[in-house]
Structures are given as C-alpha cells and as structure tokens.
Write a structure and sequence with these properties.
The chain has 387 residues and is of the alpha+beta class. The protein has eight helices and 18 strands. Removes C-terminal D-alanyl residues from sugar-peptide cell wall precursors.
Length: 387
C-alpha cells in the first residue's frame, strides 16, 4: 500500500490543523446495476463500508447458507481446542445420508467413524446435510443444542435478524436470515477462523469413493479472484450465493439471495463484485506508527512532539480518488509536558470532497519529559503573552 506523504498547510484555526492532498474533480460513480434477487449486499471486508444493498434487512430462508454458521461454530470449536480435526465421529441414525434423499449430502453411513476434518470438508465443499447433523451432535450432543450455539454466535456477531433451527438449512418455520446478516457472517468467517475459511476455495472433495465438486461456480471464473464462500438452494429460498473475492488490496463480500437459478446467482454476484472492484478501492493513507505531524509542545525537554496514530487507517474510496483526500487533525488542548508515549491528544479526520469519511485518535508517538525549570518559566511566559 502506498503511504501518502502530504504537506502541512501552515494556516491554523484555533487548534485545528489541515494536511492537504491535492485537489481534483470528484469521480462520478454510476448507480448500482440492477440486481435480480430478493435481496443483496456488497461490503468492503477491511473497512466495513457498504458499497451496495437492496432489501438488505428482509428476512429470507437461507437454505444452505446456514452451513456458513455451522462452519463458523466448527472453526471456533477447533480454535478453542474443544474438538480437533483428527477426532473421529460415530455417525448416528439421525445423521445417516438416507435421511436426506432429495438434498445434498456427503454419503456417510450409520455406525461408521468419520474424522472431523472429512466431515468439515463434506459440509463446506459438498454441502452435506448429513455431515452437518453428525458434527452438530458431536459438538453439542444434539442438533437442537447446536442450534442454540449457532444463535448465540449470531447474537454475538450482531446478526440481529437471524434465527437458526437446524444446522443444514432445510426449510422450516422460524429459520431465517437477511442479506446484511449473511455478509456479517461472511466477514466473520474470514476474520475469525481463517484456517476454516481456507477450505472454501477447494474445488472438489472425494469421500466414500464419490467425488463431488464445490457448487460455487465462481471459483472457476478466471476474471475474478474468488476464494469462497457458499451456495444455497431450496424451493422456498430460491438460489442464493455469498461470495468473497480480492483485487489488489481490496477484499469484497457479496450476498445475493433468492435468485431464480444457479446461473442467475452467479451472474448477479458477478455484477456486484465487478461493480465494487471497478469503481472503488481500499487504501491505507497512514499506517500504525506513522508520523502525521510535528506539533509544538510547551514545558518540555523538546520543542516539538511527533503525532500519529496507533492503528492502520484503511478506507474505501472511489477508485482513483486518492489524490483528493484531505487529512485534518484537531487537538484537544494546547500540548504541555510531560506527555507519555501513546497519549491521546486529539483526533485525525480523513475527508473526501469536504465529507468526513473516517476519524481516528491522534496520539503522541514519543515520550516528552518536563524541561528544565528555566525553560518551563520561559514557556509559561510565552504562553501568557500568546493568550
């Protein structure tokens, strides 16, 4: 990522200072293309910026998108050490593949022992309903108890319009989600359980002599760098797809729910991703520890202190508009020593075309100790004169 090297504008207004990054004309962004789905959502993974949405909070049947939460729970259980990929799971009658004759399955057999790792791949790659029940029982004792875990994680993630009844997503009353909540879950999968998420890019999995291919056809799309996430389909839900793809420093998560066919969910998802990558970009103007400005400090053993931020500043902007950014900072008060390193002294604002798009705490990047007695008296007198 390219670090911006702005010049300090010497004009001060009270305790507000400006850093300018060249002026230019604003980029014209076209409207979001028409998305033929019951609901859709497009978000920048890194910044959380919502780029496009439609009926994003409409409650819809998730179908096999449900398995994203099943997978999330599995991933967190592995990370916490409660289960291991090498654990062997005895397949119960409830998890038997014969219980799911008209739906996707892994083809596991009752009484057989199957590893957590194989069952996990059976869920993610093969969308196996039987594998979902097997791991739900292994983790929580029953599918009902596992659904409680799913809902607890949903609440923790802020998925306020989601409720799960089962681990696989077959239609049932009070089993619903929204495009926005599915995007939240997609982001959480990538962020919280990266080893689990890495399985989503695998294109096929063979179990019990049966090779099945990942139903996410965008994994084969050479024009997009897609590495997940999940398809879903039932007669009630229609055809849905949550997708994540990367370009340069940008990762997008897209959701389309309730399209009319397998092809339609692929086409509509591609529309969203292409729109996001074509007209927007993720940049990081300043990184953690970068010095933003040297500011006068009084009563100290130095005359200036280096100010900056303690975190990266990723933002989503219209593509090509980096040069239009302006950074401003506002001090909370006149700076006086002593000041410890990392002390918050103000706020950094990032603006584009006069609109604030982000703000961060402005901190000292070094410790400033008190100066000598005489230098403090001198600074005190100067401050009195300036006031």
């Amino acid at each position: 990522m390219t670090l911006l090297k702005p010049k300090l504008i010497t004009k001060l207004c009270g305790l507000v200072c400006s850093v300018s990054l060249f002026a230019a004309n604003a980029q014209i962004i076209p409207s979001v293309p028409q998305i033929n789905a019951k609901g859709y959502f497009l978000v920048d993974f890194t910044t959380g910026k919502v780029i496009a949405s439609g009926d994003a909070d409409t409650k819809l049947a998730p179908a096999s998108l449900t398995k994203m939460m099943t997978s999330y729970v599995i991933g967190t259980e592995i990370v916490s050490g409660n289960i291991a990929p090498t654990d062997m799971v005895t397949i119960s009658e409830k998890a038997w593949a014969k219980n799911f004759p008209e739906s996707s399955k892994m083809f596991i057999e009752v009484g057989k022992k199957v590893s957590v790792d194989d069952l996990n791949r059976g869920i993610i790659i093969q969308s196996g309903n039987d594998a979902c029940v097997a791991l739900a029982e292994h983790i929580a004792g029953s599918e009902d108890a596992f659904a409680d875990l799913m809902n607890a994680h949903s609440e923790k993630l802020g998925m306020t319009n989601t409720h799960f009844i089962n681990s696989h997503g077959l239609d049932t009353d009070q089993h619903y989600t929204t495009p926005r909540d599915m995007a939240t879950l997609g982001v959480a999968l990538i962020r919280d359980v990266p080893e689990e998420y890495a399985l989503y890019k695998e294109k096929s999995f063979t179990f019990n002599g049966i090779k099945q291919y990942n139903r996410n056809s965008l994994l084969w799309d050479a024009s997009l760098n897609v590495d997940g996430i999940k398809t879903g389909h039932t007669s009630e839900a229609g055809y849905s797809l949550v997708t994540s793809a990367t370009k340069d420093d940008m990762r997008l998560v897209s959701v389309v729910m309730g399209t009319t066919s397998e092809r339609a969910r692929m086409v509509e998802s591609r529309k969203l991703l292409n729109y996001g990558f074509r007209f927007f970009e993720t940049i990081t103007p300043y990184k953690a520890g970068d010095s933003f400005a040297e500011q006068r400090i009084w009563m100290g053993n130095k005359e200036t202190v280096s100010l900056g931020i303690l975190e990266d500043t990723p933002i989503t902007i219209p593509r090509g508009q980096r040069k239009n950014l302006q950074a401003n900072f506002e001090l909370d008060k006149t700076l006086e020593a002593p000041l410890a390193k990392g002390s918050k002294v103000g706020t950094l604002f990032l603006q584009l075309d006069g609109e604030e798009i982000a703000k961060y705490p402005l901190v000292t990047l070094e410790e400033i100790e008190e100066g000598s007695f005489f230098s403090k008296v001198y600074d005190y007198l100067r401050l009195q004169i300036m006031q």
